[in-house]
Amino acid sequence: MSTTTSFLAAYDAVLTAKWPAGTHSSRVPTSYGITHVNSCGPEDAPPLVLLAGGGSTSTVWYAQAAHLGRTHRVHAVDLIGDPGRSVAGERPIRSVEDLTEWLDAVLDGLGAGRSALCGHSYGAWIALHYALHAPPHRVRKLILLDPTQCFAGFRPGYLLHALPMLLRPGAKRTRTFLEWETGRAALDRTWLRLRCAAADFPSVRPVTGPRPEPEALGALDVPTLILLAGHSRAHDPARVAAAAARLLPHARTATIPGATHHTLPLHEPTAGELNRRIEDFLMTR
């Protein structure tokens, strides 16, 4: 069995075993390629768009799908160029402007109008930059889960541990890295099999860049919730919280005790608290 076939089988296994019945998969055409989206919840409910961290795929949101899908139409997006079922086109995504145009096209294709936007890790970086560049009517609320490179940099130790996985990707190195960062937390085996298979799936280098300018953050007029992992090894959560409080005038920040960067958003019992906080924020006017 090829690595691609194994990956896709593991992807479908997570959807079948972990996502709610009635989950609908769609393919949204954009000028950057075909974007795969997994959706659940009432079709006439307010849209909630979920952007996963690098390598995690849209399936990582299974712990949120059924819960948040009670009150929202949940759309979990496979990032173009990242492991998943999206297919990159001839036009590559090379800049924040490209990411904004791509996500605009995805929202249009979903008929998602004014949406709540939630991202984890690299997905949070994309969500924040999108909120800063998109038209004012696009983002109703913004949720950032342990956002990386948004308000503070990575811990050097995190980058050192990630380096072998980045230089020579593979399932064993991915598993070793996750065991270190999560303190050997018992991650769901079905999803972990997919996450390790993603290491061998063809992907392109993600768009990265500097943190947003303080002036741009200060002008962001979108209600924002920032949820940090109390035991994150990616960065110092206290430093991130202090910087976010200083830079974002409409943000509220909270820390999820016991969570690490990579146990979010899926690991119990932290997923339950995560869901409650997100739901309360989304339902508050």
Give the class from helix and strand content and strand pairing: alpha/beta
- Describe the largest sheet: 9 strands, mixed
Total helical elements: 10
Helical content stands at 25-40%
Mean pLDDT: 94
Radius of gyration: 17 Å
What is the number of E strands?
9
Indicate the proportion of strand residues: 15-25%
Structure description:
The chain is 40% helix and 18% strand. It has 10 helices and 9 strands. Strand 1 and strand 2 (33-40) form a beta hairpin.
Helices and strands in order, then pairings?
Layout: H1 3-18, E1 24-30, E2 33-40, E3 47-51, H2 62-68, E4 73-77, E5 87-88, H3 96-110, E6 115-120, H4 122-133, E7 139-145, H5 156-167, H6 171-182, H7 189-197, H8 214-218, E8 224-229, H9 237-247, E9 251-256, H10 270-283
Parallel strand pairs: 3-4, 3-6, 6-7, 7-8, 8-9
Antiparallel strand pairs: 1-2, 2-4, 2-5
Tell me briefly what this model is.
This protein is α/β, with parallel strands linked by helices and 285 residues long. It has helices at 3-18, 62-68, 96-110, 122-133, 156-167, 171-182, 189-197, 214-218, 237-247, 270-283; strands at 24-30, 33-40, 47-51, 73-77, 87-88, 115-120, 139-145, 224-229, 251-256. The chain contains ten helices and nine strands.
Annotation keywords:
285 residues; alpha/beta; 9-stranded mixed beta sheet; 10 helices; 40% helix; 18% strand
